[in-house]
Each structure stands twice: as C-alpha cells, then as structure tokens.
Amino acid sequence: MRRPSWVPEGTDLDKPNAARVYDYYLGGSHNFEVDREMARKAMALWPELPQIMRSNRAFLRRAVTFLAERGVTRFLDIGSGIPTFGAVHEIVRAVRPEAQVVYVDRDPVAVAHSRLLLEDDPGSDVVQADLRDVDDLLARPEVAGLLAQGEPVAVLLVAVAHFVTDDEDPWKLIGTIRDALPPGSALVLSHASLEGRPDQAEDHQKLYQRTPTPLTMRTHEQITGMFAGFELIEPGVVYLPQWHPDQPEAVGEHPERMTGVAGVGFRP
Amino acid sequence: MSTIPVSDSAERFHEAWARLLSADHGMAVHPGLLRGLVARTAALLHRAQQDEPFEPRLAAQAGAELVDAHFTDPVLLARAVELLQAQPVGDARGPALTGAFAAGWAAALRERTLREQEAIRTAADTARKEAERALRASEARFRALFESAAIGIGIGDTDGNILAVNKALQELFGAAPEDMTGRRVGDLVHPEDTPGVWEAYEELISGKREYFQFDKPYYRQDGEVVWTHLTVSLIRDDDGIPQYQVAMLEDITDRYRLQERLRHQATHDSLTGLPNRAAFFERLEKLFEEPEPGARFGLCYVDLDGFKVVNDSLGHDTGDQLLSAVAARLKAALSPLGHLVARLGGDEFVVLLENCRGEQEAVAAAKTVLKALAGPVLIGDHKLAVGASVGVLERRVSTTTPGAAVRAADLTLYRAKEAGRGRWTLFDPKENARAVSRYAVSVRMPAALDQGEFFIDYQPLYALADGRLAAVEALVRWRHPQLGVLGPDEFVTTAEETGLIMPLGRWVLEQACGQAADWIKRFGDAAPQLNVNLAVRQARSAALVTDLGRILDTTGFDPARLQLEITESTVVGPEDEALRTLHGLVDLGVSLAVDDFGTGWSNLAYLRDLPVSGLKIAGSFVGDLHDPAKDESTGWRIVSGLVSMAHALGLTVTAEGVETRKDAERLRTIGCDWAQGWHFGRPVRPGEIARRITEEPQGRPVGGSSAEG
After folding, report:
1. B317-330: per-residue pLDDT in tens?
2. Prior bond to B53 cis, omega within 30?
3. Chain B within 8 Å of A10 (Cβ-Cβ)?
4. Which residue did the predictor score with more confidence, B90 or B459?
5. B612 found inside a domain
6. Residue B702 counted as domain residue
7. What pLDDT score was predicted for residue B601?
8. CA–CA min distance B15, chain A (Å)
C-alpha cells in the first residue's frame, strides 16, 4: 500500500541513492560515503560505468539542444536527480534564454539540493513527486501550469524508467503522461538495456536491489514500446552514442558498450 | 634547447590540448563551450610559457578553469602534465609551470569538492528538517484523530502494558489519565467475559491472528460495569514482528441492557421472577443435545396443595403473593444446591437437576422442596399453611426424551397427589405406563389407529467390521393429541392387554415392509435389512404366519431381508404353541432374533432349540460399563462372554445402547457383529435413513462421528 501523501517519506541517508551514485560516476562530490561505497563496488565489476554515465549525460545535452533549436521552450525533467553540471536549464538557455524548466525528483535530498541551486532562477521550478504516482505528479501546480499553456513540452525521462519495476508498469505511466501533453510535445528517453552487455546485467541489477531504487534493465523492444503514441524521429531507439552524434567519429567503434539506449519522439 | 619555431610548437600544443579535452568528460560538454574552454586555457598556458617575467598564476588559472568546467578526473591531470612537459620552453620554467598548473587544478578541485560536500550536506539537512516538519504535522493530525475520536481507543505493547488511551476511552472507563497509566490489559478481565476472548487475545499478541471482535464488559473506575463492542488489531513493524495492539471500544451498555431485559422478560415469569416454562424447556432440551455418556438428570414436579382454595377464598392478590413467597422459598432452598427452579404456570413449579448423581439426590431435592414449604406463609393478616406434592423422576439422559420425561414427571406428581398430599413419589416405569394407559391410552387407542395417529421411526444398526448400515429397527410411535409423542414402552403393554396389539402389529408390519421394499427398489443391495419387534401375543397367534405371508406378497418385500425380534418370554417351554408359529415364520424365509437378551428368563440352553439366527444384547449391559458403581472390566467380560456364547450357537450378535465411539471400537475388537445406539443414531424418519444410504455408500467409520441428533 502506498502511504497517503500527507505522511512524509523518510530521508534515509544510510542507503545509497541512485542520484548521488550517478553524481559520483560523473566525478562530482554531491555524495556520501555510502553512495561512493556502492559506486566503487559497481565500478570494480564494471569499470566502464563512468563512461556510460557521461555518454548518457551527452545524450541529454544533445537531445535538449536538438529540441531547443526546433523551438521547444518548455521542459519537464522527471528524475532530474542532482544536476551536477550541464543541467537542462543551462543547456537550453544557451539557445532559448526564455525557456521554462520544471525539475521533478522523488528523493527529498536531490530536491532540496536542486532548490538551493535554483533559488535565484525564476525560469525553473523544483517539485518533489514520484513518477509511479503519475496522477499526483501531473496534478502538481508547477507541472499542471507548464502543461496548461498548450505549448509543446519536452518530457525528459533520462535514465529514470529503469527504476520503475514491471509491476509498476512504466508503459502505462508514460501513456498517462503522453495523454496529458499538448500536441507537438516530445518524449526524451534513455534506459539501461539488457542487450549491450548481457554479461554485466545481472550483477549490476543485484547491486541496486539494496537501494531504494532497484534497477530493471530491459530489452530494446520493451524500451521502444515506451514510445507508444509518439512518432520516433530518426534514427529511432539506438545506443546512446548513436543518437545524433556531434561528429560521426564520436560514435566510436563499440557504441553497444555504452549499453544504454535512447530516443526522441514527438506527439502528433 | 629546442630549435623548433615557437609558433609551430604552439599550434601543435593547441591541437593536442583540444584532443585531450574533447575525450571522456568533454563528450558531455556542448561543443561550442568546449571550443571556448580549449582556446582560453591554451592561451593561458601559452602566456605562461612565453610571458616575461614568468607568471605561474596563469598556469594555475588554466588548471582551475578545467575544474570549473567539471574536468575533475585525475587521469586528465596526468595527461595534461605529460603534454606540458613535452612542450619546449625557452628557459628553465617548465617544471615550475607544470607544477603551478597542477597546483591550480588541485586547489580548485579541493574548493569544488568542499563546496559540493557542503551543498549536499545542506540539502540533506534541509530535506531531513522538512521530513521532520511533515512528520510532526502528520503526528499532529493523528493525535487530533486519536484524541477527538468518539470511539474509545487504547494502544498497548505486546507485553500487555497500556501505553496510551484517548479521551473517549477515559470517559468510557470513568477514569482520569493517571488511572490508566501503568495498567495492564490483563487487569481488564471481567467475570462475564465471553469464553474465548482471552484466548483470542493471546493469539493476537503472539502474532497468530490479526484482529478480533467481541462484546466485552469492563469495570469502570467507580465499579459500575460498561459493556463494549471491542475490536483489537495487531500492528507489526516493517519486518512483520508484532509491535503494538490497538483496541477500539464502542459503548453498547444501553443496547446490551435492553437486550438483557428483553431476554429476561421472555424467559422469566413476571410474577415470581423465576425462569418460565420456555426457559425451563430450553435448559432441559439443551441437556439432551450432546449428553456425556451415562449422563443423568432429575426432575421434581411440584404442585401446591390447596392453592385453589386460597385463591377462591382470599382472592387473586393473595394468591399471587402466596405464589411469590413460595417461589422465593424454593429459590432460596434449591439454587444454592445448583438446581434450577422454574414456574411452569398456575401453582406448578419444577426443579431441574442437571448432572444428577442418582436417585438419592433427586429425592433429596424433593424433600428440600417439602421442607422449604413446611412453615406457614404470612400474607397480610393471614397465616397460610401451604403444602405441596412432588413427582420425582431421575433417569439417564439417553433413555428418554424431554417430552417423555416431563410427561412422566407430571404423571408421577399425579400419583403423589392421589396417594395423599404433602409427599413425594418416585417415578416408576410400570406405574408410568399404567398411568398413561389408565388416563389416556386404552380408551383412545382403537380410534387412534383409524385416525392415523401412529407412525414409524427407524433406528440404524451398523456392522462393526466395515461400518456398513446393516439394518434398521422399526419403532412405532403414537402422536397422542394430549400427551404428545409416545414411545412403544408407554403403550405396547396396554395394547397387549386389550388385544389391540394384533391390528397395531399388523399395521406396523405392513408399513415397515412397504417402506423397506421401497428402499430396495431405490437402492438395491445398499438398502438395509428390516427388523420389526414381535409382541408375545402376536407370536402366539396362529394368524400371524398367514398375515405376514399376505403382507410380503402385497409389498413384494423379500422375506430374506426381514428379521423379527422376539423377547425371551415369547417362548416359555419346549411345548409352547408359539414355537410352531416361529417355525412357520422361518419357513416363510424370515429370520428371527432374540431382543433385549439378558433381561428376562435367559435360559441359555434353551436358545439352542429356538429357530433364531440373531441375538441382541440388552442395552443395560453396555450402559453398566459407565456406571461408576460397577466394575468396568467385569462388565466387559460379561459382554465378551455373551458374544462368544452367541457365536458358538451360530448367532449374529447386536449390541444395543452403544453411546460412545470407545465402546463401539471395543465391541468391534471383541468380535460383536452389529451395534445400535445413540453413537450410531437415534430412531429417525425414513427420509433420514434414505439420506444415510445415499450419502454414506462406504458406511461410516466405527470410531467415527459422534451421536446423531
């Protein structure tokens, strides 16, 4: 049973947290020993993890720039975590200074950090909400306000949907968001894939079992299914480096080693 | 030193520098931003190499800018140092420049790290405070809910310590807060607690059940009793370990009192306050529901002598006062002995002795009644002498029914009255039968047969070896308009005396053979054998063989499935004319059994000469096994001896009066063939027999279910 919304979620600093572990992979210090301990363990098993995270961050940057250059000025970043560097509002402002960004995360520490960071930024809002309680998320005034303007909104689910289990049905949750979006809106999604490094998948998922956010890696087909009701733009759902690389050679020889897949789709 | 032109080397450094920064972390940086960073830092480093005087600050700034752009990976520092060291520099400033660059990078990283640690700690702190604030707010909501709930709520730990109670519960208990602290759930026991409530409580706190509900009384602080509807739930922690119990209590005292009053009115006599006729019958019938083997009970039927005179001469008010006084005396004298005193109506009272230990105890109760009423009763100016007559009945529960017992007690009372007032009379079966016949039976019986007042019940006989329904015994009943349902022992003797046994016996044979033929038609071999009792007078009648032959013809009933039960007194000698009739019956294909063996003349040697194939051991043999006054092992030796003797004569043995599973099992081991008794089922309507045939095709386990109905 999910607790009623007026019963607060605890801030459990004794357990590693996905957002802070991600920050550590990216070379940041917004983390605690418990996070670093888990990240070190993961890296010992899978040394390429920091590179994979950077690749994901690079995808975010390219996708946001891509959309901003095509006139999108409203961004809803769900599972924003700790925007160590290259936060969405920074990227988008380089192209669209008037852009509005709403950051959403369920972790109270990440939210508190984002609020500190964005205190003086009038174009950004931070909301504590949970993708799994999507109706509550969409009903938050900041989120509802962004959607109510009728202008296209880019919804970012970057490295987030794999923290939603099959039982919690991420496809249905994304469908609910899709139905709330104005026409011309976009979905930006990246997701840990089972196929890039099948040898690593099991151990890696096990490590996340003891965090508040267990990891579910999925097949290419399952991930593509999350774009139901969106028109995927070229090249579709591909490995992270393959999506609109800055230069052709940036893809590298083994894009599958980055294991994550990503895509961008528009709602007609 | 190097001879390569400075501009060339600067260009190559710039290219190498750009390649270095584009890799790894650089991928995540916007290309435009990255180009700017490369240009800025390369220029700073170039100036550090060329400017005079040497400014290490510039190299340090280049290092710091990298960290500001999040180039925090030490691998990058190592590569940058390599590049710088490979760069030819005009004077000896190379190592100092590289050192300044590394120091600038490190100092900026240190600052950045501290800043970020500070930021994340502040964020964690803020989040924690926010969570605490929200927790306080939710606690406040819960507290408000708890405090202002109209229902009483109490919280205790699993050791039974009461931790908190709300205002409503304090009011319910009429207690101040300090009265409740330190109390334990176990202190709240009340003598009228529903059986099972504390067992349920133990199960709850040990985690075996999640909640329970009961209506439960409590003592208030002022000693008054409050009745509540209680619900207790178990609260577990995240690991499922029981932590707390939460009790919710709703005050139902008014509703409970009203129910009690209604119940009291329905079950008590308004004049005397004694349990009324309905309550008495309810208690009596309960005794018969699931009696212990060998259980006994007693009844004292009390009727005041000369009450009518008091009523007629002094008026109803006085009469009523007299009844109240009598009721009070009876209650005072008999209730302490554990007996129930009820008023049946008019000037009739009854004393019920549950778990009676024997005739003496019932007689003692009757004497107590007479003694209690011996002294005169003062009503106003009148000193009234009241006497009473008492009919005493003391029986084993299994030998009678509530209706028959009450009727017998009533008739016994009548005999007491007839014998002279102010005395008690003990029930006597013979006297009872005589009384029944005298007052009601003989006169009415001829008409009763014509008017369809008789009917037949069937009692099952089971084969002990395989639990099969082997036979049923037909038992005639008379639904008498005034006396209720009478059993054969109450009217058969009269029927024999008056000769009515002949048409009645014929009627029974017709009915039972018709019914048994129908069972065979419906169930084939699964249908039981039919046993029918034969009265002595029937056996002596020459017409019996003819009558039976005709009945078998009409009903189409197979004579091999019919067994007639005769008593030991049917045949009194080798020359007895009854013997010829019995042989005639056997010639028809019918078998014979001796019923109630062991109670009559019991000429063992004589059994050999009778054309019988079965023997039924009288119920008293098995009944005596439970008589504390008689030695059980001797009893079993007698039964066992009877079985062996019957088997030696080639007879099938049936034990009657089997009331317990244990006895059934023992009888099976000593080789007894069939058994009959409450353990296997009382006499029932034919439909119930049909139900047993269809629903128990495999029979029933001999040690199996307990007594029926």
Report:
1. 888 999 999 999 99
2. yes
3. yes
4. B459
5. yes
6. no
7. 56
8. 17
Assess if residue B349 is contained within a domain. Answer: yes
Using the beta-carbon criterion (under 8 Å), do A109 and B127 form an inter-chain contact?
yes
Residue B517 lies in a domain: yes
Strands B591-597 and B562-566, by their bridges, are parallel
- Between residues B208 and B239, the one the model is more confident about: B208
Q: Best mutation site among A1, A7, A62 for testing chain B: the one with the most B CBs within 10 Å?
A: A7
Domain holding B197: CATH number?
3.30.450.20
Rounded to a whole number of angstroms, the distance from the CA of A121 to the nearest CA of chain B is 17
Radius of gyration of chain A, Cα coordinates, nearest whole angstrom: 17
3-state secondary structure chain A: CCCCCCCCCCCCCCCCCHHHHHHHHCCCCCCCHHHHHHHHHHHHHCCCHHHHHHHHHHHHHHHHHHHHHCCCCEEEEECCCCCCCCCHHHHHHCCCCCCEEEEEECCHHHHHHHHHHHCCCCCEEEEECCCCCHHHHHHCHHHHHHHHCCCCEEEEEECCHHHCCCCCCHHHHHHHHHHHCCCCCEEEEEEEECCCCHHHHHHHHHHHHCCCCCCCCECHHHHHHHHCCCEECCCCCEEHHHCCCCCHHHHCCCHHHHCEEEEEEECC
Per-residue pLDDT tens for B247-291?
999 999 888 888 888 888 888 888 898 999 888 998 999 888 888
The amino acid occupying position B136 is: R
Verify whether the Cβ–Cβ distance A11 to B138 is below 8 Å: no
Query: Is the CB of B120 inside 8 Å of chain A's CB atoms?
Result: yes
One domain, residues B554 and B660: yes
Do B462 and B511 sit in the same domain of this protein? yes
Set of chain B residues whose Cβ sits within 8 Å of the Cβ of A54: 24-25, 27-28
Task: Give B1's pLDDT tier (boundaries 50, 70, 90).
Answer: very low
For an interface test with B, give the residue of A3, A51, A53, A109 to mutate (most B CBs within 10 A).
A109
pLDDT computed for residue A5 by the predictor: 45
Residue A199 Cα, gap to closest chain B Cα (Å): 24
Kindly state whether B28 is in contact with chain A, defined as any CB-CB distance less than 8 angstroms: yes
Cut 0.80: pTM above it: no
**B421 lies in which domain range?**
269-427
Which has more confidence, B654 or B696?
B654
Q: Do B31 and A54 touch (CB under 8 A)?
A: no
pLDDT the model gives residue B573:
66
From chain B, the residues in CB contact with A117 under 8 A are 119
Whether B24 and A10 lie within 8 Å, measured CB to CB: no
Pair (B58, B167) in one structural domain: no
What are the pLDDT digits (tens) for B448-490? Answer: 888 889 999 999 999 999 889 999 999 999 988 777 788 888 7
Partner-chain contact A250 B27, CB within 8 Å: yes
Distance from CA of A32 to the nearest CA of B (A): 8
Examine the domain organization and report whether B646 and B563 are in the same domain. Answer: yes
Structural domains counted in chain B: 4
Percent of chain B surpassing pLDDT 70:
95
Q: What is the pLDDT of residues A120-153, one digit of tens each?
A: 888 999 999 999 999 999 999 999 999 999 999 9
Does B574 share its domain with B691?
yes
Indicate whether B440 pLDDT > 70. no
- Does A58 sit within 8 Å of B126, measured CB to CB? no
Q: A27 in contact with B at a CB cutoff of 8 Å? A: yes
**Yes or no: domain A18-243+256-266 corresponds to CATH 3.40.50.150:** yes
Pairs of CB atoms within 8 A across A/B: 96
- Minimum distance, in Å, between the CA of residue B44 and any CA atom of chain A: 24
Q: Which residues of chain A, if any, have pLDDT below 50?
A: 1-8
Amino acid letter, residue B211? Y
